[in-house]
Structures are given as structure tokens and as C-alpha cells.
Amino acid sequence: MWSKSYSKKVKGIKASQVWKVWSNVDEWHTWQKDTDYAKLDGPFQAGSTFILKPKGGPKVRIEIVEAHENQGFVDLTRFPLARMYGSHQFVEKNGELEMTTTMSVEGPLAFLWRKIVAEDVANGLEAQTEWLIQKAANAK
Asked: 34 is in which domain, residue-wise?
């Protein structure tokens, strides 16, 4: 299995603000500059799915496998003979909010999907986190 994480601590933002932004999947394109659109099928909870269309890429169906309000969520993208997980966690401690995103790929063809998709996603985590911070700061 391959994985890569990005983490950042910020002040002045609450976990509830980050949750409000992340759980509003249909509006991701307004703050994720690499996303054409996303459309959630049902409530933001484990078992629900959404369609994500990245700029310059094909649309994919992603499943929410865990969702814990104001704490984080895990999503799953299934590829032929591989699975890619995105773990998005946020923890308030000592007046700061720590946001951590970890991308991981497992399965017999993980090495291939790592090169085709996961490395690009992981390399964009810092920018995505900055966009998230900007959007969450306005989500009071």
C-alpha cells in the first residue's frame, strides 16, 4: 500500500466551519480550483456516493465510507484491481485546528493507479488545504 499525507495547523477556524465546507459536496467546485463539478447522491454520510469531475479528467464515482460530523470523513474511489482512499481529519486542540488529509492506494494494481491518479491528487493536497482554509474562514 502507498500513502501520502499533508497536515496543517491553523488558528481562527473551527472544525464545524471545515465540516460545513467539506460536507457541501455540490459546492466543491467553488473552492477547489481543480474540480469542474461534484454531485452528492443523498446525505453526506457513510454509504452515500458522489460524482466528481476533475478538470482535465474523467468523472468518477466516490463512496463515503466514514463520516463523523466536525471530525472528518473517509472516501473511497474504486479502480480496476485497486482502491484509493482519501482520509480527511480535523482536530481542535489548544486553540488550533489541525487538518490532515491522507491519500492511500491498495490492491494488485495500486502501483499503476498511484502513478495515473493518486500522486497527482496527493501533490495537490497543500493547495487544496489552503483553498479549504479560505472557504472555511468565510463559513461562519
From this structure: 2-137
